Amino acid sequence: MGLGLGDAKDITVRGLEIIKKCDKVLLEGYTSILTVGKDVLEEFYQRPLIVADRELCESNIDDTLKEAIEKDVALLVVGDPLGATTHTDMLLRAKQFGVETQIIHNASIMNAVSCCGLQLYSFGETVSIPFWTDTWKPDSFFEKICENFSRNLHTLCLLDIKVKEPTEESLTKKIRQYMDPKFMTVQDAAKQLVQIIDNKLDTGIKRTSIAVGLSRVGAPDQRIAVMSLEKMLNLDLGPPLHSLVIPAPNLHPLEIDYLEQFR
């Protein structure tokens, strides 16, 4: 069940009716986060929620599916429920267990990104930008950005979040230790993109290329900023979640006019 992007009231009427009837309600908390806390949702729904972390959703999902054979179980997902492959895999697993499923859609960043004025049908393939480490600096996502750019298409970049991620040191131990929650900002993403650009020639995308930064889309304190990637290196766009768009090189006149207000 999708929760939308803003707050507790973004759930659909149909979704709320189902929540009230379910025997158990899980709140998926690692592919994305809502701009309000679990306690706010519980107060609005008038029932307790169980936070479903990565381990429950991926490694231990079979236990929940077995329970769902006899009971009605809801999984609440920020945005739209099928925005992450994890949830598609859950549906396939449920089918193997003979569990009947129902999908309740809602708004997600995939369509709400149009709030910046860029037209949805002019977006190409969406990419995810992961946090780099000292020893791991993948840049394959940049090739997709360049492919979209060469076809005059915008690129929505989903920025990494780390929620209850085990530390590298604890992966080889019996007792797991977890990193503090970490959310990539548009500033972080711009730093990684500029490093890639500096090492790659003739991609069409430069330090001076325009980028669109978005934060907390759908919330009352939503912010949008339009500037060069180079200037975005010093941009503080506030609390998470953030998203980044690399616009196509040739924009529609309406897109140009709309973006102007965010400069």
TrEMBL record:
Signal peptide residues on this chain, from the entry's feature table: none
PANTHER family the record matches: DIPHTHINE METHYL ESTER SYNTHASE, DIPHTHINE SYNTHASE
Domain Tetrapyrrole methylase: 2-230
Family affiliation: Belongs to the diphthine synthase family.
Catalysis performed (reactions): 2-[(3S)-amino-3-carboxypropyl]-L-histidyl-[translation elongation factor 2] + 4 S-adenosyl-L-methionine = diphthine methyl ester-[translation elongation factor 2] + 4 S-adenosyl-L-homocysteine + 3 H(+)
Name by which UniProt lists this protein: diphthine methyl ester synthase
Naturally occurring in which organism (per UniProt): Parnassius apollo
Keyword Glycoprotein recorded: no
Keywords, alphabetical: Methyltransferase, S-adenosyl-L-methionine, Transferase
Broad enzyme group: transferase
